[in-house]
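Quick one:
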Amino acid sequence: MSDRSTKKSRVDGSTARKADFIDKHVGKRIRDRRRSMDISQQDISEILSVSYQQLQKYESGQNRISAGRLFMLAHILKVDVGFFYKGLPPGEILFKGKIDELDYLLPEIDAMPPSSLRQALADLVQAVQESEKNSPGN
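Output:
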């Protein structure tokens, strides 16, 4: 049976998330803006010091683009970085069911002084998260 997880193993053993629909959206916005300015993939790829094939992968959403390269692309394409994210659903919709109030509590727990109370709170939060993941409605 194949593992259909959202992570890819790298040679160094670390993992990177696969490109997702946000990456595809950003890539499409890059491609559309580049075309509207009548700039070739070759021209952009030379400025970014990547192959035009790599730029094609960015534009198709097949590969993720780093924050630094996205910043450089915004400059080249004469837009602000936020341009690439316009048209995405609001964060509340994107993260619905993935982030909840408990996720916001964890940093607060970590900031508390070490004590048995801190450990008890951390255990409680973890138990609640586990029970929510295993509940029949999820």
